[in-house]
Amino acid sequence: MKALLPLSLLCLAFTLKAETKASNADQSLEEVAAKRWSEMNSERIAGSANGQPITLSEVRQQVAPFVKEIREKSKSDDEFNKTVDDIANETLKSATDRQLVIAEFKNSSGMIPSSYIDAEIEDTIRRDFSGNRNRFIATLRAQGITPLAYRKIVEDRIIFDYMVEQVRRSAKQVGPGKIQEYFNKHQTEFTYKDSVQLRQITITEGAAESVSEVAGKVQALSEALNNPEKLPGFIAKYKIKSLSSKPNPTFAEIAEAVSSDDFASRGGDAGWKNLEDLNERVVAAIRNLKNGEISEPIQFTVEGGKSVWFILKREGFKVAGPATLDDPQILAEVEERVRAESMKQAVATWLAELRAKNHVEIR
User: Is 322 helix (H, G, I), strand (E, B) or coil?
Assistant: First the structure.
């Protein structure tokens, strides 16, 4: 594999001052600028995979969207040029890999149904162009892409994604041995901070309600939650129809019926929360509860002067310390990490094998 020539000529935002100093003393700034302009706008084959060429313009097209951001973050021209070169190199490498994968698919007599490609194109027109096909075609023309060439781009993308997904799928199953091994190596990353498992009911002041009206309702709810014999009276007074047929509704059922936050559909289940991430008033209330107990209402004033009340139920508590695989959440997180690592390694190995048995050239 040949060494890659510098590709930072892909962008137009280079400073020429440094180049002038490094160039032959007989060259003027205008001559250096003319040479750079010629390099930046020239076309050539940047690489090939299995005989399929990859042009400099293809690489340039992929790198160009990042040039402005790179320039803003770079502290010097050298840093800027190196970053652009690195991205260009990775882009070219990815392009060669894509060509090899597509060739592998076609060599195995694979075929993507035309309906898949049609559906993908129609979805793009609907999503990105509000269904306006003329705008879609005009955008392609502005980019110098014909509809037929775009169809080929879409087909190649579908093939590549399909092939990679097959490899990933084969690596999704991970055994307990790998999970334990990963956990043992990364155990310091799995520790608990003081954390609490919560359910909550959120009551927000409505536009047509006064603070005292809502406060009265919240207080009545709080008393009913802590004294279940009062629940039927609360349900009848505030006409909560979804609870009227339930003689002994749970906290979760009540949360689903009356809470106004995003957790309502989950019965108020807010999951595990680190105490350091919670408001100090909430933390104080939680620490005074035992598991299964319900807090008094906690009132906050939000932007616009409206009030919101929280009633919390403490479901569980963990003291800071090392985690174990006995915790279902920790087990799930480790399993997901191992699976992701396994799939990544499987794809990398597969691509390396494709490169080894095919001719890849970087010019």
Answer: strand
Q: Considering only CA atoms, which of 313, 307, 309 is closest in space to residue 295?
A: 313
Nearest C-alpha neighbor of 50 from the set 86, 103, 1: 103
- Asked if 261 contacts 255 with a C-beta cutoff of 8 angstroms, the reply is no
pLDDT tens-place string over residues 138-182: 999 998 889 999 999 999 999 999 999 999 999 998 899 999 999
Instruction: Tell me the C-alpha distance between 149 and 19, whole Å.
Output: 38
Amino acid identity for residue 283 in this structure: V
**Residue tagged 């680190």 (tokens):** 274
Alpha carbon of 13 to those of 68, 143, 166: distances in Å? Answer: 8, 21, 41
State the burial class of residue 109 (Cβ atoms within 10 Å of its Cβ: 0-12, 13-18, 19+).
exposed
Residues 230 and 228: their CA atoms lie apart, in Å, by 5
| Contact present, 271 and 197 (Cβ < 8 Å) | yes
**Of the ranges 20-24, 140-144, 309-313, the best mean pLDDT one:** 309-313
Tokens matching residue 147 = 């509809």
Q: List beta partners, residue 300.
A: 308
For residue 203, the SS3 value is strand
List, in sequence order, every beta strand (DSSP E) within the chain: 45-49, 52-55, 191-192, 195-204, 269-274, 298-301, 307-318, 321-322, 360-362
Per-residue pLDDT, 72: 87
d(CA 108, CA 147): 27
DSSP state of 12: S
